[in-house]
Amino acid sequence: xxxxxLILSLALPGLLYAQSGDLLSGHIDDVVVTATGTPHTLKDxxxxxxxxxxxxIEQLGASSFQDILEQLCPGFDFNAGDMGSQMTMNxxxxxxxxxxxxxxxxxxxxxxxxxxxxxxxxxxxHIEIVKGAGSALYGSDAIAGVINxxxxxxxxxxxxxxxxxxxxxxxxxxxxxxxxxxxxxxTSLTNFQLQHTDGWQNTGEEDPAQTEFHIFxxxxxxxxxxxxxxxxxxxxxxxxxxxSLYAEGSLYGKRIFRPTDGKYPSCxxxxxxxxxxxxxxxxxxxxxxxxxxxxxxxxxxxxxxYYYRYTATTLEDGYDxxxxxxxxxxxxxxxSNLQSDQQRAIATLKGVFALPHGNTLNGGAExxxxxxxxxxxxxxxxADDWTASIYAQDEYNEIxxxxxxxxxxxxxxxxxxxxxxxxxxxxxxxxxxRFRAGWSRGFKSPTPKxxxxxxxxxxxATTFLYVxxxxxxxxxxxxxxxxxxxxxxxxTASVTGYLNKLDNMITLVNIPVSxxxxxxxxxxxxxSAQIVPRQYRNMDNARTYGADVSVTWRITSDLTVGAxxxxxDTEANLYDANHDRMKHVIIDxxxxxxxxxxxxxQHRFADNYRLGLGIYGRASSTRYYQNNGDGKAYQLWxxxxxxxxxxxxxxxxxxxxxxxxNIFNYVDRTPHGLHLGTTNAGRTWYCTLSxxxxxGRKMDTRDITRESGYSSDDE
Length: 715
Description:
CATH architecture: Beta Barrel
Largest sheet: 22 strands, antiparallel, barrel
Number of strands: 41
CATH topology: Maltoporin, Chain A
CATH superfamily: TonB-dependent receptor, beta-barrel domain
Helix content: under 10%
Strand content: over 45%
Number of domains: 1
CATH class: Mainly Beta
Number of helices: 6
Distance between the termini: 42 Å
């Protein structure tokens, strides 16, 4: 508590000053599109929307996308893992959160986790967050909410170059480069990013319940060493003033290095690393009609391939090219073994049309095809699925103080059949007040893994056989929310209450041998081992409910303070496979209370020098789990500084950032195998140098704001 008081005292002078100072405009006039698919100012968007701006991201000095959300949005939790980030949003995990990049689905989900390294924090313009079911607009998976990452664009005549290098504790390196140019009607933007860390170990102790001995000198790390890289290109061509076309693509690679030496082969010695190879390609365009209406067409393809990369000779379940399943197939150091190759193609046609009497129609159609190549994990080695949908949404704005938005998506999935996802929201506004209420239906179609899974895993004397289920139904949800928001000048405060009810949740269930699907008998062995068959079925239901509070106050042109609080409770009826019954539990990872607070101050001391300071704090109460212990409560504090040199009049700007994370050096030393409150490595430092060069055009206030992080107040 003494630390909290000390930190808050840094913001107190600004709060006192505000009693006599004038309130200036904040970000309430920013334009957002995620909530309705149509542009609205943040103040007047019909559905409650959170925005993280580019200026906030730069001031924070974040090293990753998850760092941004965790520090600035209290409703999120992240735990780093070898297969991606274990993320929760208002109590629901990765598979119920839809992440978009410029309105397109992020591809890279593996093992129920998201590889958020695909998102370069230096290439983010802003982030739009809409909580609750968004399936009416965005289809499957949008049950907990939608996160739309809007990337930076180079759309002016001339040449643009940028280099950003960030280094920090534990050999943390983040490299970002951009090259953009425009020639006539053609614009090109090339981005490169590289991320590396040596990882860290918060404890060498293993959970004694999961190891043969009580171990205190394990080589396992809290976060393993990894390196990833990405190259992306985007070309746009303005055919006419109304017609524009684009083509873009990317390549991505990642390797997670796991400990290969140690005293205890059963728990801290690994014989393979994990490796990803991703790719994407998109083409499309937009046409503006004379009336101001717009039609867009997008075709996207994505690939996410996941391998074991062996570091020592390993006897592994393998796949014989002749088609036979073989136990203890030998792999040698340097060889790779494909675990899964997930590919997806989506074609989307959208249109936005202004109708009489204050109505705006947003509608379209989408076709999605999923292909999975996993020789050891699905029937016949490969599986595919398709989904077709149409949707329509109408916004009624005839009355100035009233907005009514209603929509529906009709979906046909190859296996789970027909689904309808409607939505309805109402916003009333009077003066500086906004009242919002809404209901929406979410759904999540079964994945190819859940439909076609086939995998053997031996644990001791027991062998588990996991099988898919082609009769699965889509998981569904009903989300209700209401909110009140007040904004005046630079002050904005909002309170939102919500209830999210989920049905037909998919879980693994023990089944009799007689119910094993046909085509699996060859995996039952010769009877020498005990076989326990498990199958995915629609068994569970749950609900989450809570409240979010947010306050932002831009006290002066230099000083801003903000705070957020999230209360959450969860209930679930889950299938207990050990006792063959349903049981009433909480959802894993739930914390009743989470919050964040920050204060930022920026001031120009000379025509070509600006200083920024920031103090950030976040805290969480205990995180509850059904097994392997609860995550401890924690609070973490961060200090950041930013130095902007030059205003771009000669085409070059410099930015130096430096800071300390986890000022008070809190480390969760819970033994490996148990749940952590936070994986933070303790007190760490970072330093960043950014150089931006622009040539061939006169820079104005908007350019400076976009490219150097300055506000329009500076000009």
